[in-house]
Amino acid sequence: MNVVVIYGGRSGEHEISLMSCASVIRNIGSQHKVTLVSISKEGRWFLEDGSVFENIRNNADAVLSVTENPECAVSVNFGLGKDKAFSCRGEYIPCDVVLPVLHGTYGEDGTIQGLFEMAGVPYAGCGVLSSSVCMDKDTTKILLAAAGIPVVPSICLTRAQINDSKLYDSLLDQAEEMLGYPVFVKPCAAGSSDGANKANNRRELSFALMEAFAWDNKVLIEKGINAREVECSVTGNAVSSDPNVKETLVTAYGPGEIVPKHEFYDYDAKYNDPDGAELKIPALLDEEKLEYMRCLAMKAYEAVNGTGLSRVDFFIDRDNGNIYLNEINTMPGFTKISMFPKMCEAFGLDYTKLIDLLLVEAVEQFKSKSALRTDR
Questions:
Q1: Cα–Cα distance measured from residue 352 to residue 117, given in angstroms and rounded to the nearest whole number
Q2: CB under 8 Å to 362, separation ≥6 — which residues?
Q3: Helix/strand/coil percent split, the chain, to 5
């Protein structure tokens, strides 16, 4: 296949994308012809030279970056089909499928997925609806609760509400009464724990809200759970799977358990500190509980119309054993220490086969949607 791999992006997770994409480059099957397209932090698209791919693939210490060469600017073309969807210097970029290795805003929030849909190109991962829904933690909770899936109690605050000082104080009173302390404060639509903090009192809560609102206009205050963190990898197409194409069947891998060595599983523990957390695959649970969580992960994936892949994250309350679904990540980390590929590999799907599965599923998803009627 001619695979256009896109990385970087306008996101607080730009650097994570660079690390994830480097891992993808080192593991994608040699039968694919890969073209790298990078997106700067300002949102400009560039065609990377073929030597960038070869350097990353052949040098384990090489670091991926965005080469901002104006002469290599990429244009997106609409209505011309997948073979002419992208162009650079007056020439079309060969494309059978796009693999967007993008995290966070403008990457896994439905925006770039909408662009791919408009350009008419197959792409790996969740679609517009599931991407945008899962990017917003509050909306995700609403849908999962409606599907009968337990979620952690929380209160959502908007910027409009905090701009009203009297309303702000009453909402903090409500949060304290309903949730108690400690609480976790998170931007609704940021990932990799950007802007997330723990608060043990009113003063810390106010500072945590200030930090979170720097990242988003909606912020979640969530009950602090004395939790074990357990995750499942899920692949397949919850909307139009075909029993004759195994890559489209919804499948759960894991779960695995994260044992953080930091106060909680924060950005540094996830990406900067190789000893920031211990990963247990499978999770330290009996087989009945493991199977229950796999089934619950697939149920959640289906509830949000998941396609391609997602990592479904759970909390298990250490005090009473209650299980809560924390969030669904539609483009989870793909770095060498990331949980998603590690769980897949532990359950028989190695990194290279995982990428192949995602590409096949993307093409099948495109075929299924292309067969639908769009006029009378």
A1: 26
A2: 97, 98, 99, 122, 123, 124, 125, 308
A3: 40, 25, 35
Quick one: 35 exposed, middle or buried, by C-beta within 10 A (0-12, 13-18, 19+)? buried
Point out which residues pair with 74 in neighbouring strands: 88
Closest listed residue to residue 99, CA positions, set 368, 369, 367, 363: 363
- Measured between alpha carbons, how far is residue 44 from residues 40, 91, 161 in Å? 5, 18, 34
| Segment 309-328 mean pLDDT | 96
pTM: 0.91
Specify the residue for token string 């994409």.
21
176 CB-contact burial (10 Å; exposed 0-12 / middle 13-18 / buried 19+): middle
Q: What is the DSSP string of 165-193?
A: HHHHHHHHHHHHHHH-SSEEEEETT--TT
Are 228 and 293 a contacting pair, CB within 8 Å?
no
d(CA 156, CA 27): 40
81-109: pLDDT as tens digits = 999 999 999 999 999 999 999 999 999 99
Q: What is the DSSP secondary structure assignment for residue 93, as one 8-state letter?
A: P
Q: What angle do CA 283, 284, 290 make, to 5 degrees?
A: 55
